[in-house]
Design goal:
The protein has about 130 residues and is an alpha+beta fold. The chain is about 25% helix and about 15% strand. The chain has two helices and six strands. Strands 1-4 form a two-stranded antiparallel ribbon. A two-stranded antiparallel sheet has the order 2-3. Strands 5-6 form a two-stranded antiparallel sheet. Strand 2 and strand 3 form a beta hairpin. The protein is elongated and about 85 Å long.
């Protein structure tokens, strides 16, 4: 996103967690407002990380670091972790941001559900038949 969120401000708990890096800029303010309007949560702010694992961009001078790449989601409850990847070497001044999610399958595939439903009906029919006999 190339925005600076910085430290979360009061009243933004619908959008941010408790953790940030640096100071917010105007683009960061617009991004927070966008997230508020669209019910999105900024995943990078949900998890406590050491400063060396928060920054996502290194300036050409090699000293200035900022957290400017973010992941926003409408399903923060499935996010288990958000981290910056150090070990991938690619020709960029940005580091990759990764989230780990947990998706539980709540519904069985349709075919399996139909088979189970048919088995229940067969069992029910067999039980009724034995009662009536």
């Amino acid at each position: 996103m190339n925005v600076k969120i910085g430290q979360p401000a009061g009243g933004e708990n619908r959008v941010t967690g408790n953790y940030g890096y640096g100071k917010r800029n105007k683009r960061g303010e617009r991004f927070v407002q966008f997230c508020l309007q669209n019910n999105l949560k900024i995943a990078n702010t949900l998890f406590r990380k050491p400063r060396k694992l928060r920054w996502t961009w290194l300036s050409p001078d090699g000293y200035t670091r900022n957290e400017i790449d973010f992941i926003a989601t409408n399903k923060p409850n499935i996010i288990e972790n958000c981290s910056v990847i150090n070990s991938v070497h690619h020709p960029s001044d940005h580091r990759m941001v990764r989230i780990t999610i947990n998706i539980e399958r709540r519904h069985l595939p349709r075919k399996t559900s139909l088979q189970q439903h048919e088995n229940k009906l067969t069992t029910k029919y067999t039980q009724q038949k034995s009662i009536n006999s």
